[in-house]
């Protein structure tokens, strides 16, 4: 059975990548390595490792590009390459800024509002109820 050969991604500016599996394998391995810079308790690291390991496993077991795209279900392999490259930039940013740290993990940052004075609202003279 002959394998499908993609001629176009159908996305302007996104060329077909004939070595997508190899590129993705390299990117996913690098992603897993870079995630080590973030503490294992960080939710971001946990989810990214889960997603990356799943995708890496798919491309290791499957050679058919269409089946890879259908199984991962996150776009064409060329888009997956772009996503993986972008994620490496996000990992670097998260690691450098320690964005995974909150003072209280159960309490998101809150905005503080000025209190409203008790006499701020005076009833109208025309209001019979007020």
TrEMBL record:
Keyword Electron transport: yes
Pfam (any one): ETC_C1_NDUFA5
Residue segments, region Disordered: 104-130
UniProt topology in membrane: Peripheral membrane protein
Keywords for the protein's UniProt record, in alphabetical order: Electron transport, Membrane, Mitochondrion, Mitochondrion inner membrane, Respiratory chain, Transport
Gene Ontology cellular component annotations, sorted alphabetically: mitochondrial inner membrane
UniProt subcellular location: Mitochondrion inner membrane
Biased composition (Basic residues): 114-130
Biological processes per GO annotation: respiratory electron transport chain
Similarity section: Belongs to the complex I NDUFA5 subunit family.
Protein name per the record: NADH dehydrogenase
UniProt source species: Heterostelium pallidum (strain ATCC 26659 / Pp 5 / PN500)
Gene symbol of the encoding locus: ndufa5
């Amino acid at each position: 059975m002959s394998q499908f050969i993609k001629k176009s991604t159908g996305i302007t500016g996104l060329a077909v990548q004939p070595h997508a599996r190899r590129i993705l394998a390299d990117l996913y391995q690098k992603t897993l390595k870079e995630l080590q810079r973030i503490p294992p308790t960080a939710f971001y690291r946990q989810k990214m490792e889960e997603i990356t390991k799943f995708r890496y496993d798919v491309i290791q077991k499957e050679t058919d590009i269409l089946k890879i795209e259908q199984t991962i279900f996150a776009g064409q392999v060329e888009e997956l390459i772009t996503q993986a490259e972008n994620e490496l930039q996000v990992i670097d940013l998260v690691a450098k800024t320690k964005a995974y740290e909150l003072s209280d993990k159960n309490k998101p940052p809150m905005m503080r509002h000025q209190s409203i004075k008790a006499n701020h609202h005076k009833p109208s003279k025309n209001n019979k109820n007020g």
